[in-house]
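Before the break, one more example. Copy the sequence into your notebook; we will annotate it together after we see the structure.
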Amino acid sequence: MEECSLQFRNRRGKTEKIQLEIMSATKVAVSMDESLLLRLDKLVRTHPFRSRSQVIQEAVAEKIDRMDKSGLARESAKLDRKFEQSLADEGLAGERFPTRLKEQAESKAEAAWRALIRRRRAEIHSGKAKVRPAEEVMRGARSRTSDS
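Here is what the structure looks like once it is written out:
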C-alpha cells in the first residue's frame, strides 16, 4: 500500500492537504462469455464505476465476503447447543469473557470494518462519496455538539 498526498484549494481559497492510501494492484487476465462482457460494459456505462477492473474487483471482494460469512454460518451450525450453553455459563460465572468467544466477536467486528472500508473506498473512487478534510469534519462536529 502506498501513501499519497493531495493538495488543493477549497472554496474559500485556502490550501488544504489530504493523505490517501493507494493499494497497489496486480494485473490479471480474465476470460468471460461475450454476453457477460456486454453486461459488464453496461454496468460501467450506467453506474458510477470507473472501469471494468473496478466492477470485477468489487464483485470478487463481495463474493469472497459472502463466502466467508456463509462458511462462518456453516461452522456455527455445527456447534453443540450444550457446549454453547457451557461456554455461556462459563462466561457468566467467570470473571472474564471466554477468550475464544471474544476472539470470534473481534474477528467479526474486524471483518465488518474491512467490508465498510472497501465499500467507502469504492464510493470515493467512483465519485459517489465526497471527501472532506478531517479538520473540516471535526470543526462541524464540534460546532454541532457545542450548540446542544
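Residues 99-126 form the longest helix (28 residues). Helices lie at 34-46, 52-77, 81-93, 99-126, 134-147. Try to locate both features in your own notes.
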